[in-house]
Design a protein that fits this description.
This protein is an alpha/beta fold. A six-stranded mixed beta sheet has the order 13-12-9-16-14-15, sandwiched between helices. A four-stranded antiparallel beta sheet has the order 2-3-1-4, with helices on both faces. The longest helix has 25 residues. It is elongated and about 80 Å long. It starts with 6 loop residues before the first helix and ends with a strand.
Length: about 525
């Protein structure tokens, strides 16, 4: 029994906490009534800690304290799920801030200071903290930890036991602190998950591993809440989570924007990388706010409220919906039999608009997002339609050329599942690239560029930089065809130079005579050329 939190113990604790949350996940999910009763808090916490443990597995076994704690914190930040998962990632960050720079494993005093810092950070990340939640329990754990450290400064086992005991005592108080918990007769789900994580820490420090980790069962007699407790209201319809690359001052403005349009706002992170969580009615507006602040990615949109099914609704037919911002592309998709949902250049379509289009299209609908930022929105809109009884499939096309490839094999006479499979296979077999013009000087993976230079991209990566559209297009085509290909699709943009199509067709005849070439007028404003290779 080492009673020490060295780096090997940190790894074991994290993996042990993930295992403990795995065994208690369903019980914690069953407690989940706040902020919305979506029954996934235990699952979200489990996935968050798994991400942290996986990040630790990626660094060398002999890594020092700073590298180890940073990996734990960074992994949790990247993998945080749900409101409680995002807050837990901030707890790990607080521990890393204090314990990472230490030259030796922490004693009781050092751990108490770290947990206090973690509690302060977590509360500061929540725009409108509510008592009776994971924040209250974390505060109580930190306070108990600090009191124990005053008498057992070097006894890490005693201090961590005090933290876990204080958390358990505060957990049972949550039922009477929040109206929705009192009426449901449950403790807070996120707080219950935090208790499991702290219990796993005590088990690692003391080497006293319980046969099972306690999660309070739902009571059969809900309490009558005391007067003046916070009341739960019907909340927004969507949970939006994304990672964001942005500067600190931009995140301050983002918080203000999101606070105006939603609730349950939590923003954690730092050093240019943030995890943003908010509940809103307009998911598109929340994503657009992120785009204005920096570069969002790993966008997840979840519909929070179940809809009433209509089990006896009549069959209304098969349809394909394609999303695009360009007139020419819209015409191409419509010619291929798709219904088009228009979006503004650089922006995702409003979620309500996309959801309504799906609902009106039929009861077997395939959605082609045709843009990475639209894929998550399409999934959320599809989920709404599924809850109304329709069969909806999202083929995760990230470019218009992938959408065209999917439409080329679409057969409305096939079984719906078979048709979706073929469309997905065709889209996945299509490599995509594009040209765009740099708006400012920057360093790229292909070298520096100046404002006005032409950038050649394959998927999301800049592979070449040049001064002329034709030359850069040739280089991108050659790279894309280096691995083989039978069909090259060229979609010409609104501001492409005259003769671009003819020049590229001639180049392909000379260099790749066996490749079939399809040229279309896409009318897209942002990109002089879109390229697909199958």
């Amino acid at each position: 029994m080492g009673e020490v939190l060295d780096m090997a113990a940190v790894r074991r604790w994290c993996r042990g906490a993930a295992k403990a949350l795995g065994t208690t996940r369903a019980e914690i999910d069953a407690l989940n009534v706040f902020p919305v009763p979506d029954g996934d808090t235990g699952t979200n916490l489990h996935l968050t800690v798994i991400a942290a443990a996986d990040a630790l597995d990626q660094i060398p076994g002999g890594a020092g304290a700073l590298e180890t704690w940073r990996a734990l914190s960074h992994g949790a930040l990247l993998g945080a799920r749900g409101n409680s998962g995002v807050i837990l990632s901030q707890v790990f960050r607080g521990l890393a801030d204090v314990l990472g720079p230490l030259d030796a494993p922490p004693g009781g005093t050092e751990f108490a200071g770290a947990l206090k810092h973690a509690s302060t950070l977590a509360r500061g990340a929540v725009e409108h903290p509510v008592e009776g939640t994971i924040l209250s329990v974390l505060d109580a754990a930190a306070s108990a930890c600090t009191s124990a450290a005053e008498t057992s400064a070097t006894d890490l086992a005693a201090v961590t036991r005090a933290a876990a005991t204080g958390a358990r005592q505060a957990l049972h108080r949550t039922t009477g602190q929040l109206e929705v918990l009192a009426r449901s007769g449950v403790v807070d789900a996120g707080a219950a998950g935090l208790c499991v994580v702290l219990d796993a820490l005590v088990a690692e420090i003391t080497d006293e591993h319980p046969e099972h980790y306690e999660v309070p069962a739902r009571t059969t007699t809900p309490q009558t809440p005391a007067q003046g407790l916070p009341q739960q209201r019907n909340g927004p319809g969507y949970e939006v989570i994304y990672l964001l690359y942005a500067q600190d001052d931009a995140v301050h403005t983002l918080r203000e924007k999101l606070d105006r349009i939603g609730d349950s706002l939590v923003v954690v992170g730092g050093d240019g990388l943030w995890n943003v969580h908010v509940h809103v009615d307009d998911a598109g507006a929340a994503i657009e706010a992120g785009l204005a602040a920096g570069r969002p990615h790993r966008i997840r949109v979840t519909y929070l409220h179940a809809r009433t099914r209509e089990p006896h609704a009549p069959h209304t037919g098969r349809a394909v919906i394609a999303v695009t911002a360009a007139d020419g592309l819209a015409a191409l998709f419509e010619e291929c039999g798709a219904r088009v949902v228009r979006r503004d250049p650089g922006l995702a379509p409003p979620l309500a608009v996309l959801a309504e289009a799906i609902l009106q299209a039929g009861d077997e609908v395939t959605v082609l997002p045709n843009e990475p930022a639209v894929v998550s929105l399409a999934e959320a809109a599809a989920e709404r339609a599924r809850e109304a009884g329709a069969s909806i499939a999202v083929v995760p096309t990230k470019a218009a050329v992938q959408g065209m490839a999917a439409l080329a094999v679409h057969d409305p006479l096939r079984r719906f599942a078979d048709d979706v499979t073929e469309m997905t296979r065709a889209a996945g077999a299509t490599r995509f690239g594009r040209l765009e013009v740099a708006e400012q000087a920057a360093d790229t993976p292909a070298g520096p560029c100046l404002a006005g230079d032409v950038l050649g991209l394959i998927e999301a990566d800049v592979v070449t930089v040049g001064a002329g559209v034709v030359e850069v297009a040739r280089q991108v085509l050659d790279r894309m065809l280096a691995g083989g290909g039978e069909l090259a699709t060229l979609i010409i943009g609104l501001y492409a130079p005259p003769g671009l199509a003819a020049a590229l067709e001639g180049h392909l005849r000379d260099t790749h005579p066996d490749v079939e070439v399809g040229v279309y007028d896409g009318g897209q404003e942002q990109f002089p050329l879109l390229i697909g290779v199958e």
